[in-house]
Amino acid sequence: MSAVNDTKFTPAVFLLTGISGQEDIHLWISVPFCLMYIISIVGNSVILFIIKTDPSLDEPMYIFLSMLAISDLGLSISTIPTMLGIFLFNFREISFNACFAQLFFIHSLQCIESSVLLLMAFDRFIAICNPLRYASIFTLPRIAKMGLVCVLRGVAVMLPLTILLKQFRYCQANVLSHSYCLHQEVMKMACADITVNNIFGLFTKLVTMGLDLLLIFLSYVMILKTVIASYAEFVRALSTCVSHLCAVLIFYISGIGLSVVQRFGNSSSPLVQILMGYVCLLVPPMMNPIVYSLRSKHLRARIIRAFKK
C-alpha cells in the first residue's frame, strides 16, 4: 500500500508549458526564440574565440568578459532543450531529476553571472580610481582565484535549495507555467511546508544578487566622485563603463523583477510572469555580446578583422 501511495502522491514527471492560450502559434513563436538563441550562442562564442586567439586582449577586463560569455552560454544551453522542445515538438514532459538539474544550473549560472558583473565593476573601479595599483591587484593567478570563487559561490548557494526540493513529495498538479524548471515554481508544487525553502531562497537571492547590485552601485558612486571634477575624465569614465552598466541593468532588472513577481505578485497576470521569465533567461545572454561588441572599439575592431580574414 505504501508503494501505491508513493506513486499516487509523487508524479513521475513535471509537465512544462509554453505560452498558455497560444498553443496554436507555438511554431511561429519558436522563430524569434530560435533567433535569440542563435545570436546568444554565436555572439558569445565569437567573443570567446577572439579573446582567446588575440594576445592583445589578454587583459583583466577581457578575461572577465570571457567569464561573462561562458556563463551566458551555459544559461542558454541549459534552457534550449526544453524550451525548443515545447515550441517545436510540443514535448512537455521532463523527469524529476532532469527538472532539478535544470533549475540547479539555471540559478547557479545566474548567481555566477551576478558575481562576474560585480568583478567587472570592481575592475572598472580600480582602473579609474586607483590605476597605479591596477596591475598589481589583477594578476592572472588572482583573476583565476576570483573566477573559481564565483563558481563555488553559485554552487554553494543553489545546491542546498536543490537538495531541499528533492526531499519534498509532490502531490499537487505537476504542471509548470514555463517551458523550463525554476526553483520558485517547482517549490510551489510540493505538498509539504515550504516556508524554509521560500525564506531561504529569498534570503540567498538578496545576499547574492541583491548584495552584488548594491556593491556595483557603490563602486559607480565612488567612480563618479573621482571623475566628477573633470568633464574630460567624466566622459572617458562613462565611455569605459557604459557597456557594463547596460549589462548590469538588463540582468538585474529582469532577474530581481521576476523573483519578486513570482513570490508576491499573485494578483498579476500569469502572462506577465511568463513573459518576464523568458526576458530574464533569453535577453541578457543575447544582449551582452551585442552591447560589448558595439561599445568596445578594441573588441569590435578585432571582430571585424577576424571576419574579413
From TrEMBL:
Keywords: Cell membrane, G-protein coupled receptor, Membrane, Olfaction, Receptor, Sensory transduction, Transducer, Transmembrane, Transmembrane helix. GO terms for cellular component: plasma membrane. GO terms for molecular function: G protein-coupled receptor activity; olfactory receptor activity. Its main location: membrane. The chain crosses the membrane at residues 25-51, 63-88, 100-122, 143-165, 244-265, 271-292. It is found in: Cell membrane; Membrane. SMART domains: 7TM_GPCR_Srsx (SM01381). It comes from the Eukaryota. Belongs to the G-protein coupled receptor 1 family. This is Olfactory receptor. It comes from Gopherus evgoodei. The lineage of its organism: Eukaryota, Metazoa, Chordata, Craniata, Vertebrata.
